């Protein structure tokens, strides 16, 4: 067993072994010793680099057992979306496979508030939630923070882009003296400003974007016309098992789902206008079932972490480079290989210096059948 894994208590070592994790990623190696020591942490690392374990493992090492009564939260993890919050909660429960007495709670929108309060009546040691819903519970005094000594801002760049900055600050202001860990896939002046306001003398970790190339991803850019996109899409999907297909609008997502169904492909769409139960069902079918293709917009896809995803297709290129990084990071996770296919039309050619992000990019001109 790797010496970095041996630093954890035996129950955690067993859980990691069951997940086939035998060594730590670079961001984990750098952050975990400082996080376990109770220091604030500011980490910027690409998607797929292992940021979730970089804060979960220290949390599980640091929190104390609270016995059989009602548990008061010791750690609050803020995430930008319901899907990500649920994925974090699932990961926590997997790590708790050999640990008893630690409770978790997920507080997100899309669920009846009163029902959430009832399910939370026995308390929790670790609370995972979206900023707005956690603020709702704080206002209703259904979330007690007097014992909370750890706060995590996961996908902080996404939370800022979605307008959660004030909610994040509200949550942090309600906590007693605490450790704060901020994780972001991208770096910006806004992220630096939030870090300066929320963190005290933090350990800083920056994993360069070049790390993406170590994820064993093959990048392909197809030069084509808008009308040629569907035929290329059909061709690519025929050889993929699990694929995430990105489009820029809900309208395009719905169009692609209808188109793929007509051609006999297994495909479903998730977007921000969809109710929670439907999104949860589709994500479950994609993660564990036969669903082959998940069609998504940026907002709906934030934080999706499914190791089985073999391919990401950008039917539309995004409006900014941060979204480009988040989208391409949905494959080649947990040490797997992956493929990223970018559809590039004439109007896209000057929007992104693709070679800057993907030096090994393979550029191809799409030639339709019969030409």
How would you sum up this structure, described in words?
The chain has 371 residues and is an alpha/beta fold. It folds into 2 domains: 5-207, Rossmann fold, CATH 3.40.50; 211-365, Rossmann fold (3-Layer(aba) Sandwich), CATH 3.40.50.300. The chain contains 15 helices and 14 strands. Strand 10 (267-270), helix 12 (276-288) and strand 11 form a beta-alpha-beta unit. The longest helix is centred in the first third of the chain and has 14 residues, at 82-95. The chain is globular.
Looking at this protein, list some descriptive labels.
single chain; 371 residues; alpha/beta; Rossmann fold; 2 domains; 7-stranded parallel beta sheet; 15 helices; 14 strands; globular
Summed up:
The chain contains 15 helices and 14 strands. The chain has helices at 10-18, 26-36, 51-62, 82-95, 113-119, 131-140, 156-161, 165-173, 189-198, 229-237, 250-262, 276-288, 298-301, 321-328, 354-357, and strands spanning 41-44, 75-78, 104-107, 126-129, 150-153, 179-184, 203-206, 217-223, 243-246, 267-270, 293-296, 311-314, 338-344, 362-365.
Which range does the strand content fall in? 15-25%
Radius of gyration: 21 Å
Poorly predicted ranges = none
In the CATH hierarchy, the architecture of the largest domain is 3-Layer(aba) Sandwich
- Assigned CATH superfamily of the largest domain: P-loop containing nucleotide triphosphate hydrolases
Number of alpha- plus pi-helical segments: 15
